[in-house]
Amino acid sequence: MESEGPLGTYFDFSSADDLFGVETWENAETELVRQTLDCALKKAQITSSQLDFVLGGDLLNQCTATSYGCMPHNVPYLGLYGACSTFAEGLLVGASMMESARFETGGVVVSSHFSSAERQYRFPLEYGCQRPPTSQRTVTGCGAALLHAKKTQKCKDAICITGGRIGLIVDSKVKDANHMGAAMAPAAADTLCAFLHESKTAARDYDLILTGDLGKIGAELFTELCAQKGFFFSDNYVDCGTQIFSEQQDVHAGASGCACSAIYICGYLSKIWRNAPLFRVLLLGTGALLSPLTVQQKHSIPGIAHLIVLERG
Amino acid sequence: MESEGPLGTYFDFSSADDLFGVETWENAETELVRQTLDCALKKAQITSSQLDFVLGGDLLNQCTATSYGCMPHNVPYLGLYGACSTFAEGLLVGASMMESARFETGGVVVSSHFSSAERQYRFPLEYGCQRPPTSQRTVTGCGAALLHAKKTQKCKDAICITGGRIGLIVDSKVKDANHMGAAMAPAAADTLCAFLHESKTAARDYDLILTGDLGKIGAELFTELCAQKGFFFSDNYVDCGTQIFSEQQDVHAGASGCACSAIYICGYLSKIWRNAPLFRVLLLGTGALLSPLTVQQKHSIPGIAHLIVLERG
Fold it and tell me: What is the ipTM of this complex?
């Protein structure tokens, strides 16, 4: 479905088999992580032994897709859990660690899988549960980015991380696990508005402002919340969750999952970056910090959004 | 049980009620995180608004104890998942981020709870399942450390993080989720031996070498594995998992959980540090990267161990 969407032709690899040749969806997600990291290393013409660390995570309990997927690469591994904000969290933590001057090359890898997520968070797929209009479809995908401390000839066209802001956990008071856009929008608005205020910049100073996976409804809410705080967008705001699938693919409110922003950035944006008029881009990685148990125990769903500034090198 | 153990009198706070006055064990763990961070801030005489970030995690699915427990503090939050190695991972990531000179003060908080872990990873407590001799008891506890980028008058007696090593994921080939010490020992030996080799130091150069939660059996295995690689300990090696409970408390192979090394370091070691002949200490945070699902799907249990060097300031 991801490869049939509007960005399908940009992705490095796609498969018609959502099991990737293995026996379970969880193993498929593991395989996806292993192959994606492999692909990133090959494209950069380096080997995994040159990686000083890999930061990664996914949505499975205990983040096993990433740990089992990174294991064959034999890399120093740091597990993250930021729900769907994990890609931005990894870039933010990785870039900060890079500035210590103790590391040369690092990696960030995140994944999600519709079928492994559905049966863990909601219902077994075999049950055929009807999904409400506010629901989003978890992206089956994986994105990996390599971080270099210094610009060299080899990575001279690389995108630079020039700033960021670690998100606060914002309680949205939303209790509906099928309404994640609404649960994450307040956190995204909180982080963006605080960043613009502190950096004394306006939304129009950026060629593109991206949110990770708010979906159609969440993106509207986010725009409204920002407007209430006095920050307005022109047509430079896009939610990655509205870009992965087409209207015809009938995914209700859009796409979601760790891989949503990761495949948008790594699989698409990084490829059009040089030819598009993009100089400064903001990415707000959005995450909903719920678990099936916190939903059963009637807690509201806290949201978080980490921001990074990407600039043309 | 933790307060009745050999280190019980050192802890800042203990409670006879494992529900901490709330309704579920998961909420109790959340409350534990909230209170522990509060306690650390009060002891340092700072407020949560002075924290540039908090790195944290726990064993619950989607690490909800830490995220819900940090939420009321309104702090920039970065979620980690390193299983029982999360405390060492947090110190390692935090110390590296601190070196970027972009942060002044950060926090690391990790928790575990016997009852919330048991019902998630193994069996409902009400079932009264018999535990095998290799099993360990998850520590109900929480530890928090504050990181300062610079030594000031206020933290002049603080312990310094002077080095570290990010662990590789090592497949132990162990498939028994009740034999975690054996699953983690190879990773701990791998990290320690690589570190000693690269730093050209010997085990005797350190006043104390700590592993996180290998337990009695795992600690023996670890000692053997290190000896096979040519590294020998005198009496300067201690596993935190053998220190929390006494022999009489009948916890089989010892203690485990994220909180095991955290309460040993924060609750005990930091307090005796000044009066004990401790100058250089190595902590190997050990973690088993399994999930209940990977065990059901017959995968072996990968281990990881992150190392940090702690020195008298």
Answer: 0.98
